[in-house]
Design a protein that fits this description.
Length: 387
């Protein structure tokens, strides 16, 4: 959580005075224009509080705040101006969502008080957001861990789908959105509730493409209805429900609305799930890409390029056998983990979770086969005693 302050004003003498008076008390960066302020956010952000003058050439304070908020959404903005026109103040508050409005000339003590108030507001907002996200992620993690125990074949894919969504987002330089990650984790909830026959159709594609698409649509609709019941997850629910409607053409790096965010998230899910399905059938990257093009004829060239950059194929990793006592949260299975009677406890490629470790510990060691972990994930455990 940052406490950095950005001060933007076109009067260099004022900025020099601000640096002398406040530089020792705050982590302070100054900029002498709106454009310089935007560049400062890119190079030195994020900022907890941004103080800006109203009257500046080429880009006034309100225009600057509108642009700055797209880059630094959680920042608290304070407006400083020599214009005492009430209309300007009202415009700044309504259009810029300004936290405080100060009038020049303004004593440094008043500026300090406003900045300290802005810092408290920033800490309150970001702390609430972090608590909310951690609660969501924790609750969703418990939900999917428990569902994997009852539906291991389905939910063994969740971790890989999340990896693909993350990798696509990085390759496409998408603005990070917590909803993308949560939607990837919950994307298969509807699939888990389909009848066994429909689930097999989706898992193995043994029917016509029309039948597969119908089952896929039904799974997406079920998932959307379930997630809609969780407060504040409307956009996540829409991402899941819209999957069957998107065509892969959308590339929205910085979505400005919830509709745009839902569209981009649904596109990421559709592509990631389809890619996971194809590669699990044994197709290599180039062949899987060709299949994607045939299925989604409007798939964007940017998305195709991102798929070609994916480095998730580690089928040649034979894995290493380790003891149950050495398994830690985050390791990845190199093969299906089965009981003596052939029941799947965890699917190949699944990341180990605390819930699965608890379940495995309930089995007598004699009832479990050797546990094979991918070599790349062994670093999660440090030094292991290998079998």
């Amino acid at each position: 959580m940052t406490n950095r302050i950005l001060f933007v004003d076109d009067e260099q003498s004022l900025l020099n005075g601000i640096e002398r008076r406040l530089g020792s008390d705050f982590d302070l960066i100054t900029a002498n224009s709106g454009m310089a302020g935007l560049l400062a956010i890119d190079s030195n952000g994020p900022f907890a509080v941004i103080v800006t003058d109203m009257r500046m050439p080429r880009m006034d304070g309100i225009q600057f705040i509108k642009e700055a908020r797209l880059k630094s959404r959680d920042s608290v903005f304070i407006m400083l101006t020599g214009n005492q026109d009430q209309t300007t103040a009202t415009q700044a508050l309504n259009e810029g969502h300004v936290f405080r409005f100060l009038t020049k000339p303004c004593p440094s003590a008043d500026i300090v008080t406003a900045i300290e108030g802005g810092l408290r507001q920033y800490q309150l907002v970001t702390a609430e957001k972090e608590l909310l996200l951690n609660t969501f992620y924790g609750a969703v993690g418990v939900l999917t861990d428990v569902m994997e125990i009852t539906q291991p074949i389905v939910f063994s894919r969740s971790g890989r789908i999340q990896d693909i969504v993350d990798a696509l987002g990085s390759a496409l330089k998408l603005e990070t959105q917590w909803e993308y990650k949560l939607a990837a984790r919950l994307a298969l909830v509807g699939l888990a509730l389909l009848p066994d026959d429909d689930r097999i159709i989706l898992e193995f594609g043994i029917q016509s493409s029309e039948c597969v698409n119908e089952c896929f649509t039904r799974a997406a609709e079920i998932g959307e209805r379930l997630i809609q019941r969780i407060p504040r997850l409307d956009t996540v629910a829409r991402m899941i429900g819209m999957q069957s409607e998107v065509n892969g053409s959308a590339i929205i790096q910085s979505p400005k609305t919830e509709d745009a965010k839902a569209l981009m998230g649904a596109t990421l899910l559709r592509v990631a799930i389809h890619w996971d399905f194809l590669t699990r059938q044994g197709l290599r990257s180039t062949t899987a890409t060709d299949e994607m093009r045939r299925s989604l004829v409007l798939l964007s060239t940017e998305m195709i390029g991102a798929l070609n950059c994916l480095d998730l194929d580690d089928e040649d990793d034979p894995g290493v056998e380790i003891r149950l006592a050495d398994i830690v949260d985050g390791m990845v299975l190199a093969g299906d983990l089965l009981t003596q009677d052939g029941t799947i406890l965890m699917g190949k490629g699944r990341r180990v979770t605390r819930a699965m470790i608890e379940k495995l510990s309930c089995y007598p060691a004699a009832d479990l086969p050797p546990i094979r972990i991918k070599k790349a994930s062994l670093k999660m455990a440090g030094d292991l005693v290998l079998m």
